[in-house]
Amino acid sequence: MTGTTKIVLAGEGGQGIQTIAKVITEVAAKQNFQVSYIPVFGVEQRGTPSVALIILSHDKIFYPRFEKADYVVALQKRAVASVKSYITEKTKVVFDSSTISIKDLPTSAIHRFGIPATQIATEQFTAKAFNLIVTGKLSQVLGLDEDHIWQKIEKLLGKKFKTAEIKEKSHQAYLFGRKFVFELKRFSRPLFQPSTDKIIIKNDEKLAQIYPERCKGCGLCIVKCPVGALKFSDTLGVFATPVPEIDLEKCIACGNCFRFCPDGAIAVEKNKKKK
Amino acid sequence: MVEKLYMTGNEAAVRGAVDAGAKIMFGYPITPATEILEGWIAKTVTDKSLQYLQSEDEVASGFGVLGAVAGGAKAFSASAGIGHVLMQDPISMAENMRLPFVGIMMQRGGPSTGTVNFSQQEVNLAIHGGNGDSFRIVYSASSVEDMYELVIKAFNAAWKYRFPTFVLGDGYLGKMKSTVEFKKPLKPVEAKPILSESGKPMWLRNCFSSEEELNTLLNNHIVDWEKNKSKIVESETFHTNGARYLIVAHGLVASAAKETVLKMRSERIRIGLFRPITLNPFDGEALRTAARSAKHIFIVESAYGQLGKIAKAELAGHNIKTKISQISKPAEGYTPEEILAEIKKHNK
Amino acid sequence: MLNTMPKSWNIESKPHLFCPGCGHGIILKQLGFAIDSLGLQKEITMGVDIGCSLLAWDFLDVPTIQTHHGRTTPLLVGYKLVKPKRIVISYMGDGAAWGIGLQNTIHAAYRNNPVTVIVINNENFAMTGGQASYTTLPGTITPTSPVGKPADLGSGFKGPELIRNVAHKDAFIARTTVTNPIHLLTTLKKAIMTQKENNNFALVEVLSICPTNWKTGAKASLDLASEMEKVYPIGEVK
After folding, report:
1. Alpha helices, H only, B233-271
2. Is C195 helix (H, G, I), strand (E, B) or coil?
């Protein structure tokens, strides 16, 4: 690593973009880089793309913002639009190939590096560890010390590792990322994209409707269902969070899910007609 | 048609508000503006179409004004000194959202609670008191007549151009009783509902998530400001034809300076007065015209350069080689003789 | 096709920008149903504050204005004076109503201004990152109380009880909770009708949830809200 490296990280709010940025930059600062990091932020805590601008250099850095990036890391389809302007023909575009299709990348993205982090995390570790896989790979590319990075992850995210098992899986996910070889030509299929279709399920007695494009995966409906008819499915909502699925046989159409959903993403009704 | 009356500046302001079509006043007692609130409230007793609210503080007064204008009613407040400072919270919102806030600010000694008497120290506050780029119209009243006429102008300007608009007076003006002749009042501009209820709802906000959104909004404000500036500016020249010496003063100090000019002219000294009526936007063109023939300009104010900074900025870069002297007396008024003495001192 | 939303919700601003699991979404849903069932959509003007309530600026299909921190009520008081037939709803958080805007809340109640104030109490300054507020309980860890909120900063601000002391006897003052959407709905309806039918002041505090700043999942959030009822009792404050 010589000279100056400008990096843009972008994903969904709540995906841990700023945490990745903090981990990388704090370790880089200790490792004798000159470092600058600024989150691009608005009022919302969630619900809008989260973007981080990072500069690592051997020279003094005066200003945190820049026009064009050396690396653009896009971790969610919605975030691609936020980073398009930073891409030149020299930019290396790293993207989560399990959620973003090459077609979703701008034509200016010539150098593409795929890492199907969401798929790998969901299938081999824990779904939430996808950003640790990305952190692993990024830290390796930038020449940051493997152990220092993990120690920093432990320090910043330790409270989220609720069991020893989760902590171990997270560690393995990070190490997996460190060793991962980028997809250069053949990319994974973006099967983990957010769903936009309405989900309508009915049987003789009831009709249920779920809107993935509004669901934020908060889980209130699941908690408030008195008969356990709801659980998280593999379908992703627009904010890259899991959408619930309903077991219509168990459901008693009490209306709790409808009442508690803050987003108007679910409703169940008894059919009016009698058969 | 001319009506001859005898009243104080504060009474004239109330009369101006009524004739301007104001429907409601929000206020808080503060010297030397209190009589405006009391005078307005007295009007509401006999005229049931008028309303008032004595708010819990000046911040609440200001937001009450914003609520009323959102509802399409001409509304105003009057304050002074530290109350004027508190009101910057709602005024900043008016700046962002182009709400026709009208405020009558009777300057008193500052900073802090200073005196209740007099100053010209709230010029910076009236123009730049918010956390924006100061798109506010500020009139400076120099007489009891001005307190009437400029209040009506302020309501018209606020509702026509949609910038928060202020009339700066001071404690002497508020309390002095003067024989006055009011010209026929200007026709009031119509008030329209701002948060309209019919058709598609309006959603109004002043907070944005991205820099670009706010910058776009502000650029629109700039376009309107630049487009309308020349229609809004006003100033007065007094014996400036061929004047070799020029006094620049506003408000009541300008009225004292008029007496100074007359005295010095009677001693064959060719001196004149440039008096800005709008402090923001400022009639720079008229100032420069008056200044070109002068060899020495005297800026006189009861503040430390608040008017001077504006005037000097308007003169700079226009190849005007006149000597400029700043005469400052923060929080204390001048007699015409004192102005004369100061001018003579600076002219040595 | 099922209705998953109240009719008075502005569908163009959905999905909205509140966090996943935010109590605001639950409250605004019941508020929407209240407006629907009372048939008042065309009569309502709403004001929102700068906190998280800011995100409700285009939430309902009613004219809405966003104000400075704590200033929603005094603005709507002014508006109502010139537009007495409109039904005004002042929608703000606990930081706004019980802190910077407390003066304004008290005086609107004291004057019996016919406005309906809805205070969303999630025991923190949420929009700015979860700092301690007046309803945060002693011992709670927040960014401005890293070792726990000191007990000498107060044991939990009981706003509705304070307001009851200065309000007119016919004003409606109550507390409800997101954990009971049916009670929430009836309380909101009564608060609105107190203004419409009787021209009196109404204030409802709603115990809410903030999963993002509380760092709790769905169940823990609702449990915490239920716990809060021990300090902040539910029901009308008489």
Report:
1. 251-266
2. helix
At C29, phi and psi to the nearest 5? Answer: -70, -50
Quick one: pLDDT at residue B40? Answer: 97
Instruction: Quote the minimal CA–CA distance from C76 to chain B in Å.
Output: 6
| CB nearest A223 (choices: C127, C215, C222) | C222
Domain count of the fold of chain B: 2
* Its pTM surpasses 0.90: yes
What is the average per-residue pLDDT within A4-25? 92
C183 inside domain? yes
Q: What residues of B are in the A interface, CB distance below 8 Å?
A: 207-210
Cβ within 8 Å, pair A218-C15: no
Q: Which of B186, B210, B232 is the last residue of a domain?
A: B232
Task: State residue A177's pLDDT score.
Answer: 96
What CATH code would you report for A4-179?
3.40.920.10
Nearest to B70 among C10, C65, C104 (CB): C65
- The C-alpha atoms of residue B100 and residue C180 are separated, in whole angstroms, by 43
Contact check, Cβ <8 Å, B26/C78: yes
The answer to whether position C147 is within a domain reads: yes
Residue C160 has pLDDT above 60, yes or no: yes
Is the model's pLDDT at B61 over the cut of 60?
yes
Residues of C in contact with A14 (CB under 8 A): 20
Alpha-carbon gap, residue C99 to B116, rounded angstroms: 30
Query: pLDDT higher for A275 or B305?
Result: B305
Q: Return the minimum-mean-pLDDT range out of B142-151, B189-198, B249-258, C139-148.
A: B189-198
A199-270: in CATH 3.30.70.20: yes
Condensed to tens digits (0 to 9), the pLDDT of residues A173-231 reads 999 999 999 999 999 998 887 787 888 888 889 999 999 989 999 999 999 999 999 99
- For B218-230, the pLDDT digits (tens) are 999 999 999 999 9
Tell me if B70 and C79 make a contact (CB, 8 A cut-off): yes
Distance CA C111, CA C105 (A): 10
Q: Strand, helix or coil at B216?
A: helix
Per-residue 3-state assignment (H helix, E strand, C coil) for chain A:
CCCEEEEEEEEECCCCHHHHHHHHHHHHHHCCCEEEEEEECCCCCCCCEEEEEEEEECCCCCCCCCCCCCEEEECCHHHHHHHHHHCCCCCEEEECCCCCCHHHCCCCCCEEEECCHHHHHHHHCCHHHHHHHHHHHHHHHCCCCHHHHHHHHHHHHHHHCCCHHHHHHHHHHHHHHHHCCCECCCCCCCCCCECCCCEEEECCCEEEEECCCCCCCCCHHHHHCCCCCEEEEEEECCCCCEEEEECCCCCCCCCHHHHHCCCCCEEEEECCCCC
Q: Do A43 and B210 touch (CB under 8 A)?
A: no
Give B41-47 contacts, CB < 8 A, sequence gap 24+. Answer: B43/B14, B43/B18, B47/B18
Per-residue model confidence as pLDDT tens digits over C60-110: 999 999 999 999 999 999 999 999 999 999 999 999 999 999 999 999 999
> Is pLDDT of A275 > 60?
no
The CA R_g of chain A, rounded to the nearest whole Å, is 21
CATH at C84: 3.40.50.970
Both B265 and B142 in one domain: the answer is no
Query: pLDDT at position A41, please?
Result: 77
CATH number at residue B290: 3.40.50.920
For chain B, give the mean pLDDT. Answer: 96
Note whether A263 contacts C16, CB cutoff 8 Å: yes
**A10 beta partners:** A51, A74
Average pLDDT of C211-218?
93
Whether the Cβ atoms of residue B174 and residue B9 lie closer than 8 Å to each other: yes
In this complex, do A269 and C2 lie within 8 Å of one another by their Cβ atoms? yes
Kindly identify which residue of chain A lies nearest to residue B214, measuring between CA atoms.
A42
Residue B1 is predicted with a pLDDT of 58
